[in-house]
Amino acid sequence: MAAGGGVRAAKGILERLDSGEVIVGDGSFLITLEKRGYVKVGLWTPEAVVEHPSAVRQLHTEFLRAGADVMQTFTFSASEETMESKWEAVNAAACDLAREVASQGNALVAGGICQTTVYRQHKDEARIKKLFQLQIEVFARKNVDFLIAEYFEHVEEAVWAVHVLRAAGKPVAVTMCIGPEGDMHGVSPGECAVRLVQAGADIVGVNCRFGPWTSLETMKLMKEGLRAAGLRAHLMVQALGFHTPDCGKGGFVDLPEYPFGLEPRVATRWDIHKYAREAYNLGVRYIGGCCGFEPYHIRAIAEELAPERGFLPAASEKHGSWGSGLDMHTKPWIRARPRHHRGD
Questions:
Q1: In terms of CB atoms within 10 Å, which of 97, 171, 239, 296 comes out highest?
Q2: Does residue 271 have a pLDDT over 70?
Q3: Residues facing 234 on adjacent strands
Q4: CA distance 286 to 219
Q5: At 4, is the pLDDT very low, low, confident or very high (cuts 50, 70, 90)?
Q6: Is 294 within 8 Å of 32 (Cβ atoms)?
Q7: What's the rounded Cα separation, in Å, for the pair 249 and 225?
Q8: Helix H segments across the chain?
Q9: What's the helix, strand, coil split of the chain in %, to 5?
Q10: Are 143 and 170 in contact (CB under 8 A)?
Q11: What confidence tens digit (pLDDT) does each residue in 41-99 have?
Q12: How far apart are CA 341 and CA 106, in angstroms?
């Protein structure tokens, strides 16, 4: 199968999903750019889009080359609440960078918002919706293709986000940062999915906080909840690129290694092949990653699902399937290694 796949006809996110296409999401920005020296731990705000746009552009480009169909704006925690006077310039610049790279591969641009600290402190619905609305106005002006509300611990706040996003007239995806135990108020994953779809979300799922296998377990519960309620929606998963079987309800942020010592937990490309296949078999058609998900992890998703997608990503030009590049090695015991991964 040839790498690249060529330029496909421009279609919206729902048109693609409705036709049965697999959508490959992008991966880690905050943690990856922190490692590269462009993001500071703390509020995890994305000033890099104006301070170091070339770094953000490069990471977008790496994800596109790895097979991502969506360039999500680097606007996590980029609200007026967290960035004060800089928020508008950051959101606008993030949209421009995402669009610039997306146009090189006919990818879609998703404008992204996330949960607020206001909810945990005051639950001021009007104030929270206003914060969302300000970002959405920038996304509308920049004409993003669809909207993502991600990283919500509480379904109530996520529902408020859906209400604001729906008014923009764009397709809406919502992902919660929860595990099988549900949100921080004890609402089950199935009930969270039901409330989000009833609020108007087109795509629902989970992102961040938990590793691939825990995230898929949560997705199964969401799917079951929707089925029991007689509701349908497209499913989306963007798990951590770290293994977190020992974390509690709060996810990886409660681990002692967070955020500076997570490297021993990094998933291999082979782990991500399995994650992509299990997600697909579960019925998830929007599959990507979050913190710790490097471009080579996204390439693993695209390579695993190449039979369904009909092409390999451009980055596969430099990567033999299942380690087959080792066939050229001078040492026979190293040449033998790819057979193990292929199951020979």
A1: 239
A2: yes
A3: 203
A4: 12
A5: low
A6: yes
A7: 19
A8: 13-18, 30-35, 48-51, 53-66, 80-83, 87-102, 117-121, 125-141, 155-166, 189-199, 212-228, 269-282, 295-304, 306-309, 332-335, 337-342
A9: 50, 15, 35
A10: no
A11: 987 899 999 999 999 999 999 999 999 999 999 999 999 999 989 999 999 999 999 99
A12: 32
Q: What is the pLDDT of residues 288-326, one digit of tens each?
A: 999 999 999 999 999 999 999 999 999 999 888 777 777
d(CA 219, CA 206): 7
Q: Do residues 244 and 217 touch, judged by C-beta distance below 8 A?
A: no
8 Å CB contact between 183 and 218: no
Q: List strands edge to edge, sheet with 286-289.
A: 23-24, 286-289, 234-239, 203-207, 172-176, 146-152, 108-114, 70-72
Q: Under a CB-based contact definition with an 8 Å cutoff, are residues 180 and 220 in contact?
A: no
Closest-CA residue to 140 (of 169, 164, 175, 174):
169
Provide DSSP, 99-126.
HHHHTTTT-EEEEEEE--HHHHHT--HH
Q: What is the CA radius of gyration of the chain?
A: 19
Altogether, the residues listed in the chain come to a count of: 344
Residue whose C-alpha is closest to residue 297's, from 266, 337, 253, 334: 266
CB atoms within 10 A of CB 187: 18
Tell whether the model's pLDDT for residue 9 goes beyond 50: no
- Shortest CA distance to 260 belongs to which of 242, 238, 237? 242
For residue 326, what pLDDT is reported? 76
